[in-house]
Amino acid sequence: MGYSAKQKKVKVEIEGAETIVKKLKAMDEAAGSVLMQAAMEGGKIVLQDAKQNCPVDTGTLRNSLKLVKDKQTKTKATVKIDFDRSLTYGTHVELGTKHNAARPFLRNSVDENQSEINLEITDAVSDAVGGKM
Fold first, then answer.
1. How far apart, in whole angstroms, are the C-alpha atoms of residue 87 and residue 54?
2. pLDDT confidence tier of residue 3, bands split at 50, 70 and 90
3. Nearest-CA neighbor of 76 among 24, 123, 117?
């Protein structure tokens, strides 16, 4: 039986922010850019933490970590933090093998920084539409 790991997704809900939500809706397609910028700000936190906690032998895996834009609509934006997939051992480091224990550095970077990520995303959206939370 194989092991499959889906990438960890962060979903931010801005409670009590009806005004900001209305402003985003009024922006129509431009709202996607605001959401993408906010997602990138949250992603920077994950990238920095992943680089700090990535196991290092030669440093190649850590140096290949990158933050990239993924999908963007007027209601949602996603980013990915990933490593160079030609480094096939990256998955083995993150998930482990039957001979080596997992040393998760990507998933933990999201899990351990959830509050900070949410705050950064919320602040970025709020700043972009001129609101305060």
1. 14
2. very low
3. 24
DSSP state of 103: -
Distance CA 64, CA 22 (A): 39
Q: What is the pLDDT of residue 5?
A: 46
Six-digit token string for 97: 């093998």
Tell me how crowded residue 46 is: count the other CB atoms within 10 A of its CB: 27
The answer to whether the beta carbons of residues 56 and 50 sit under 8 Å apart is no
pTM, two decimals, is 0.80
How many Cβ atoms are within 10 Å of 103's Cβ, its own excluded?
14
Alpha carbon distance 121, 30 (integer Å): 17
**CA gap 16, 14 in Å, rounded:** 7
| Alpha-carbon gap, residue 28 to 40, rounded angstroms | 20
The SS3 call for residue 122 is helix
Look at residue 19 and tell me whether its pLDDT is greater than 60. Answer: yes
Query: So what's the pLDDT on residue 128?
Result: 82
Residue 29: C-alpha distances to residues 12, 33, 80, 112 (Å): 19, 8, 22, 32
